[in-house]
Automatic annotation (TrEMBL), chain A:
Any one Pfam family match given in the protein's UniProt record, by short name: Fer4_15
Name of the molecule in the record: Ferredoxin
Family annotation (Gene3D superfamilies): 3.30.70.20
UniProtKB/TrEMBL annotation, chain B:
Protein name per Swiss-Prot or TrEMBL: FAD-dependent oxidoreductase
Gene: hcaD_7
KW Glycoprotein (keyword) present: no
Sequence segments annotated as region (Disordered): 408-465
Stored InterPro entries: FAD-oxidoreductase/Apoptosis, FAD/NAD-bd_sf, FAD/NAD-binding_dom, FAD/NAD-linked_Rdtase_dimer_sf, Reductase_C
């Protein structure tokens, strides 16, 4: 399979049902992931593209594979002007 | 592959997007169209009441990642207004018609609005469901109102109240029941949650309702009059009193759909009013009500993230492969909430329990696990600031383990002491109270009258409200 060029935008979501608050992602990408209180993970869905390496490391380090990174290379869907 | 050539997904949010991706994963290579009434690309709702309101995350950074290319036609900002089952066409508000071979209904729910005649039109009265709602409410909170009134102490109400306290705002929360979250988790756990509210400095008014919201000469909210006659001065009110399914567009279609949801079968096929499954129309996510094999004799609607993702995948599988190998949607319900500095996670359906027992920690600590039983079987568990133990409970529930469970947890109480979980008894609705069982709002078109066979089964709504 040909490998697509990585998309410009960095997008991610964490399955917080699966997340067990191990905090590996917070160590790997501290500007993207953080804890609110002891166990509540918060994160930026669209971090700065400059954090890509850190975010990929975070996703790989998550022991329960709760972090999903976008793989789509298509342009983001837009509403037509008149719809707004 | 042999299969449908055109699939239309109505509702371009979590369930709609994940279904579209799963359709392509399943090998569907025909024409795919996503219809969404919001002008935004699919975004995630859980952070709206948490990281967004607190000011940490702007709403344009809650957009959901797209896990793969789906090569779809996106019709955003175009509400679906009707469906013709015989002609297999969806009508849009702008007059367009979109033909389909298979249709997925994923239009979710909306927040139950506050009645207009009781002050719902006043400036300062908010609900929280969409990105636009969150932007408006965030701006209102950032302006530093003197007091915020939150109507309803369910999950969303608790999350909003908690963020307000983090922001240093004075908050009053009214709740019809005897404890926050009592209808979802019972009064035993609800009493512990009551302490979280009070320790955080929330002015919590239990066992009462808001009678009217009142404004000044400029139509701005100024105060609320409660059922007991007391007055709460507030410039911002957040109505967090339940959800209504977005099914008006299905009125007259012949589908069994009302404010409680679209009735479907266990393989996600929508039912007509006489209870017959429609072979080419499916439903998934917050809008769907279906018979769950684990909870016989009732129709379940789970307004939770996990269910939207799982049901979207099951529906997509069945849509791509027709009835050759239908999959059943029978996940163990699961959700989380973050409020008052704690992380709360739940598996199973506590609301059906007849007993509850504390298995780890203590209710006074903000770290504990409670297990719920029904007729001697473990059916649910709630973990507070203990996210790592829940998989074990989920496995026991799925294995049909006895209740009280034998866990030998090192931090368990010496003796298991099952209690009545204290779920509230159904009460008579107060006139005009918006937190009672769903009836369509007066302003909407009349609902179809579904045949009893399809939708009069008892309902369990487990909502993130
Ligand atoms: C503030 C908030 C916090 C939450 N927090 C949590 C949490 O912590 N944990 C948890 O498990 N769950 C949480 N949830 C619930 C979770 O967000 C929902 O379960 C999930 O969004 C359901 O996805 P869905 O796609 O089924 O429905 P929705 O997200 O409701 O999407 C339906 C989409 O269809 C659109 N639509 C409606 N009618 C039409 C029409 N006629 N034509 C076209 N489009 C239409 C809607 O505008 C919407 O965009 C939260 C929800 C909210 C609102
Ligand atoms: S590494 Fe994974 S499990 Fe740990 S906090 Fe991050 S997302 Fe959660």
């Amino acid at each position: 399979m040909p490998t697509d060029p990585p998309p410009e935008e960095l997008r991610l979501v964490v399955d917080l049902n699966r997340c067990q608050s191990y905090g590996q992602c917070v160590y790997a990408a501290p500007t993207v992931f953080r804890f609110h209180g002891e166990e509540a993970l918060e994160y930026d869905y669209a971090p700065d593209p400059g954090t890509r390496r850190e975010v990929e490391r975070a996703a790989a380090a998550c022991p329960v594979q709760a972090i999903l990174l976008a793989r789509a290379t298509e342009p983001a869907p837009l509403a037509p002007e008149r719809a707004r | 592959m042999i299969g449908p050539e055109r699939i239309v997904v109505a509702g371009a949010s979590l369930a709609g997007l994940r279904a579209a991706e799963a359709l392509r994963d399943e090998g569907f290579d025909g024409e795919l169209t996503l219809i969404g009434d919001e002008p935004h690309a699919p975004y995630d709702r859980p952070p709206l009441s948490k990281a967004v309101l607190s000011g940490w995350l702007p709403t344009d950074r809650t957009v959901l990642p797209r896990a793969r290319n789906i090569d779809a036609r996106w019709l955003l900002g175009s509400p679906a207004t009707g469906v013709d089952l015989a002609a297999r066409r969806v009508a849009l508000a702008d007059g367009r018609e979109v033909p389909y071979h298979r249709l997925l209904i994923a239009t979710g729910t909306r927040a139950r609005p506050w009645p207009r005649q009781q002050g719902g039109d006043l400036h300062g009265v908010h609900v929280l469901r969409s990105r636009d709602d969150a932007d408006r409410l965030r701006a209102a909170l950032a302006a530093g109102p003197g007091r915020v009134l939150v109507i309803g102490a369910g999950f969303t109400g608790g999350e909003v109240a908690s963020v307000c306290r983090d922001l240093g705002l004075d908050v009053t929360v009214t709740h019809r029941g005897g404890a926050p979250l009592a209808s979802a988790l019972g009064g035993v756990i609800g009493d512990a949650v009551t302490r979280w509210y009070r320790d955080a400095g929330v002015d919590l008014r239990l066992g009462t309702t808001v009678r009217t919201l009142e404004g000044d000469a400029h139509g701005r909210l100024r105060r609320a009059v409660l059922a007991d006659g007391t007055v709460v001065e507030a410039e911002v009110a957040v109505v967090a009193a339940g959800a209504l399914a977005n099914t008006e567009w299905l009125n007259g279609s012949g589908l069994a759909a009302d404010a409680r949801g679209v009735v479907c079968d266990a393989s996600c096929r929508a039912l007509t009013v006489d209870g017959t499954p429609v072979a080419d129309v499916f439903a998934a996510g917050d809008v769907a009500r279906w018979p769950h094999p684990l909870y016989p004799g009732q129709l379940l609607r789970l307004d939770h993230w996990d269910n939207a993702v799982a049901q979207a995948r099951t529906a997509a599988h069945n849509m791509a492969h027709g009835s050759r190998a239908p999959r059943t949607h029978d996940p163990l319900p699961a959700f989380w909430s973050n409020q008052f500095g704690v992380n709360l996670k739940c598996v199973g359906l506590p609301a059906l329990a007849d007993q509850v027992v504390l298995t780890q920690g203590s209710l006074d600590q903000r770290q504990f696990v409670a297990a719920y039983g029904r007729r001697g079987r473990l059916i649910a568990a709630v973990a507070v600031d203990s996210p790592r133990v829940l998989d074990g409970y989920a496995a026991l529930i799925e294995a049909g383990a006895p209740f009280p469970p034998v866990l030998n947890a090192t931090d368990g109480p010496g003796r298991a002491d099952p209690l009545d979980p204290a779920f509230p008894r159904p009460a008579d609705p107060a006139p005009g109270d918006p937190s009672m069982p769903p009836t369509p709002p007066a302003s909407s078109a009349p609902s179809p009258q579904p045949d009893p066979s399809a939708s009069s089964a008892p309902s369990v709504l487990a909502g993130h409200e």
